[in-house]
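Lab notebook, bench 4. Still working through the backlog of constructs that have no structural model yet. Next entry is a single chain of 304 residues. Request: give me the structure tokens for it.
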Amino acid sequence: MDIRSGREHYLLQLEKLNKSRHTLKQYRIDLEQLEQFANEQRIDDVTTDRFAQFAVAYETVLIDKGFKPTSVRRKVSSLRSFLRFLHTGGWLSEPIHERIVHTQAYRVETTLPTLEEVAALYSFYPWLEPVESYAEWTVVRNRTILRLMIDTGMKVNEICQLRYGQIGWHEEELSLYGREGTFRTVDVPRRAILNLNDYVALTAAYFDDDWQSTDYVFFSDRTMKKRAMSERTVERLVQRATESLGTSSRGSELRYFRLLQKALQTEDEDVLTERFGYRSAAQLEQRLNWLLVDQKKTKKNDEK
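Model written out:
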């Protein structure tokens, strides 16, 4: 299979997963550049050893071409996801994606919200009942999403992909699926379950439609539970709340706030690795170290 054919298959799959136009555009750009740089070396067939060698060394190719560190990281991640898709689909016999790693530590500094800011965010979107319009229902939906992110530390894509059948009401747990096909079950606070219960009951009443196990928990009126919200939409509702309160926290930073809170409560890295969906304890430790450094910088800036 040539790179272009594989790319079109992959983009079609992303579209089926309801990825935003921005996400689709960025993947297309990254993979078109991959094809361009591979063709410069007369490589086009993704099933050859030469392509595998090129893919493993792709980070070096991008660095040599002068891309910024954040762009290098994103493009390598795009390549890894692309190759994982080809392997899962049977086009690649070897899991080349497992051999692709970042050889340099790239990261974006985070600004973690304080306890006071998180408390304000938790109450930013009001509870409205009864709901008499779609606009009022979106306020309740946004409130539930924001509270769930704060209570659980879920990733934005996990919020988007959550289906009704993944909620363990009596067990007070959620079954979560990651981007890479990973699966884990995590305990959640009772108040998170209660918030979800209030939301699904109000939603069923407003739309006059019973829930099915395959329904997406968070959706827009035009998709009516059958397609997930885009990650971009979720980030926007977080941004709307944080900017209104004079902060700049993103969805990922709400997750990191919860991660640090949990890390203070337990020293068991295996528990935290599983709970927050990291690939390894080493990756978790690296993230915690970065967060602690960023937190110290934020405190110093505030003191100034």
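Notes after review: The two ends are 58 Å apart (CA to CA). Residues 281-303 form the longest helix (23 residues). Flag for follow-up if needed.
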